[in-house]
Specification:
By secondary structure, the chain is of the alpha+beta class. It has a domain of about 110 residues: Ribosomal protein S6/Translation elongation factor EF1B (Alpha-Beta Plaits). It contains three helices and four strands; from the N terminus they run βαββαβα. A four-stranded antiparallel beta sheet has the order 2-3-1-4, with helices on one face. α1 runs antiparallel to α2. It is extended and about 75 Å long.
Length: about 180
């Protein structure tokens, strides 16, 4: 642990975002929030802001889930607080992913004002029953989706309603020698 001249440990500001399974129960989410708070406090850190961003689409499937519940944390502490927090998140089955970023070095702890309302973990509601995962077939366009326009194949034409033979040669611009070779 780095030590300043005054003999106190170096305090920095960090942000961590962790993603929970979309089907996480309200009780498990509360248990994870309590564990996160205790892990940071155990290493001398303090939570300064907690935001539950809710259920959102993931950029890519993670362990077969396409959605996740995002939780944002901002806290101050030493590097040991980050290590302890990430160690705890790694052990929890309901946590899909997490990432921590250092925001600032050399934070003056006395200048940090913490509003108790800002560090409360919000209750996570269960997913709606009608929330349906999109199938691979529908995502690839192999299956018709109710919210996508339907293109019907017409007799004697392609999907767009015309034959390739119907294209007027005069409508296609002459690109000339496109290979770059001199003739």
């Amino acid at each position: 642990m780095a030590v300043q001249e005054s003999g106190t440990s170096r305090v920095r500001e960090y942000e961590t975002i962790y993603v929970l399974r979309p089907d996480v129960t309200k009780e498990n989410a509360e248990r994870i929030g309590t564990r996160v708070d205790e892990a940071v406090a155990r290493e001398g850190g303090k939570l300064t802001l907690v935001e539950t961003w809710g259920r959102r689409q993931l950029a890519y499937p993670v362990t077969k889930f396409k959605r996740g519940v995002y939780v944002y944390l901002k806290y101050i502490g030493a590097g040991a607080a980050v290590n302890e927090l990430e160690r705890n998140l790694r052990m929890l089955d309901d946590v899909l992913k997490y990432q921590t970023v250092k925001v600032r070095d050399e934070v003056d702890v006395a200048a940090v004002a913490i509003n108790p309302e800002d560090v409360k973990f919000e209750a996570i509601e269960p997913p709606p029953e009608d929330e349906e995962e999109e199938s691979i077939e529908r995502a690839l366009g192999l299956e018709e989706s109710p919210d996508r326009p339907h293109h019907h194949h017409r007799e004697g034409g392609d999907t767009f309603g015309g034959d390739i033979a119907d294209i007027d040669d005069d409508a296609v611009p002459d690109l000339g020698n496109v290979t770059g070779d001199e003739e």
